[in-house]
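Protein in question kept in full:
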Amino acid sequence: MAVRASDVSRLPGRRAEPAPEPQTPPGRKMVSWFDPAVLAKSGMKALLSGTFGRQADRRLLDAVSRPQPLCFDYSVDDTGHPRDELWLDYVSDLGDGWDSTYAVASTVMAPELELTDESGTRHVTRGGDVLVFGGDEVYPTASVDEYQARTVVPYEDALNKRRHRPHLFAVPGNHDWYDGLVSFTRLFCQGRRSNGWRTRQQRSYFALRLPHGWWLLGTDMQLESDLDAPQVEFFQKVAGQMRATDRVILCNAEPAWVKQQVMPRAGRGFLDHNIDFLEQKVLGKKVSVFLAGDLHHYRRHESADGRQKIIAGGGGAFLHPTHLPKVDQSPGGFVQKASYPPQKTSQWLAWRNLLFTALNPWFGVFMGAVYTLLGWGIAANLNEGAVGAPSFREVINAAVQSTGSLVMGAGVVLGTVAFADHRRGPLWKKTAGVVHGLVHLAVALLLTWGVSAIAAPLAAELQWSLRRDFLSGLLLFGGGALVGPLVVGVYLLLSLNVFSCHPNEAFSSLSIPDWKNFLRLHFDADGQLTVYPVGFRRVPRRWKRGSGPEQPVWVPDPTDTRATPPRLIEPPVVIGRTKALPGKQETGPPGPTDMMVDEHLPGGAV
């Protein structure tokens, strides 16, 4: 009987040889947002989740079927004694490319981290007992496979038993909702353990009682910036456990203080009103610290009374610009104190859109196909009986007489109008979209003219018309693949740096893995909160295996000399032990105050 090679290890006296360990990380590259396949898949999931999410809100089902404690108490230790101090890490917008996600994860999971600020002062910090994910835990869309590859594995390899597993709590963002929150619930809301963390929450929102009268609340606004009634009732009950002097840290997936100002026509003011509603009608006190992601950079606003609004969406996703949205001040007297990267640097980074063709090759293939469909019929008509290079007028006449080219041209203009940014209103959107589309049509006509001029001298040699038409199509495709994306890149550059539009598209096209950040929070024995904003100017691009259990599985390769160590973005932000400010009734747009909510807060909440 023949023995298979795979059975040799099972023979008596033979030991199986261990498989060689991989020498490169198993992670995935950053999402290429202008890859047509990614765009189609993400767009379809967003459409389906938005449609069905309105009809079948998973939060309502979980409120009935998944009981959860009012709060998870970290004000006491495992023996029941009050904690003197607590370390907590906040990471948002993670689960993208390996280099950026793992660079943040390996620093977060380190037992100890020494940081240096701009003045040279050293600060020794400790890995968090609690880890909070602030939204968008995976890209491009939620699925078990994407979570495992882009989020779970990087954090497991980063911890590698170097210290205790932190307790993890996660706030869902819009990307987590793209499968109806199914994968998010499976990973974060079923008490599952992994080699990187331990989860405890049962719902997509939660409350943490922290030492010395601090609380951290994590909300779930779904895709519609909606605060559902069961969630309101939950936080009402939590408020009933608070004392008058207790202070609140509110974690929301989106920064309402920015979105409602730059996108009022998109209904983002409703999100801001939800936050006002939580402060005034539910908590009865002003929130001391707002934490949010969604915008993939660091930005901090501070009020005269010391309250903080911090955006820290640098957990691994592509960089967003800091010079837009232009919100130096926000309602309530909040003034911008810091941004990372600096706004001037952000403006210079936008010029990388001139390399759009090289940065987004699959989009080039798509644009090559579009330009081929626009011009091939025109070129074929011009090639028939051609005895010389056609004039540009002849190209225009051929285009007008080509029904297929006219239909395709109309489709291009409609597509660019749909793509245009709406933050300046519908008139701007239509105007910018039409101009963008007409530029593509003009470039396509010029390209067709050039292709016809090249094909004309070859007409005698290429007597078979099919060969001549094939050559024209090939030249159109190549030219469109090079020039079409460049037109898009110039459009995005001008839109962002001149007209203050398209911040998301103009930077998602660049897929910049650098300028990452996370927050380390320290509640000390005096009840004082210190926020350490940790930044990564340039994340490593090359990795090697760690040398032992005291290191993560992967460590930066010393040959990558351009990588920079983590540093403090700005000096630590210190929030003293002060009494919480009472809530103040303010007028605002109609919103969730119409919901069926008990106006009288239970349990004597303030």
About this structure: The first strand starts at residue 72 and ends at 73. The longest helix spans residues 465-497. DSSP finds 16 helices and 21 strands in the chain.
